[in-house]
Write a structure and sequence with these properties.
The protein is an all-alpha fold and about 140 residues long. It is about 40% helix and about 5% strand. It is globular, with a radius of gyration of 15 Å.
Length: about 140
């Protein structure tokens, strides 16, 4: 999805920037204090059936598969840099990008639940979930 024209159009249209950072995209997708306008607010989460879901849950099923790789990155990166690095990796390693599904917190984490549970969630539980996901992915 990150390499798709669909994502590029969405990101530039949403932010009004030709090459936004993920921080800029975050502010557009999840505007502070306006949770009812958040991307995914009109969907129910498939994990808890509550209103509000992750960005990933709003995408068509062809973009939602079990993660094959974990991507460590920084929200301050520009979209063009992340896309260029991924394209380079796919080309150099001769990978089939249609079979790569990244675990990238920006898209996977349900920002609605994070906002709801801010200060209530045990940090050790979050660390356990993160560790389980890394082990499950294995790459």
């Amino acid at each position: 999805y990150l390499l798709s024209q669909e994502f590029l159009v969405f990101a530039t249209k949403c932010t009004g920037s030709p090459d936004p950072t993920f921080l800029e995209l975050k502010d557009c997708i999840w505007p502070k204090g306006r949770e009812m306008e958040w991307h995914g607010s009109d969907h129910h989460c498939p994990r808890d059936a509550k209103s509000g879901c992750s960005f990933l849950d709003t995408l068509p099923s062809e973009h939602r598969q079990d993660a094959t790789h974990f991507l460590s990155w920084v929200w301050g990166y520009n979209i063009s840099m992340v896309r260029a690095a991924l394209k380079c990796w796919v080309e150099e390693d001769e990978l089939d990008s249609s079979k790569i599904y990244l675990y990238m917190c920006f898209f996977v984490n349900n920002q609605f639940r994070i906002a709801e549970n801010r200060g209530k969630e045990d940090p050790n539980k979050l660390a356990q979930v993160f560790e389980q996901n890394l082990k499950r992915i294995g790459k």
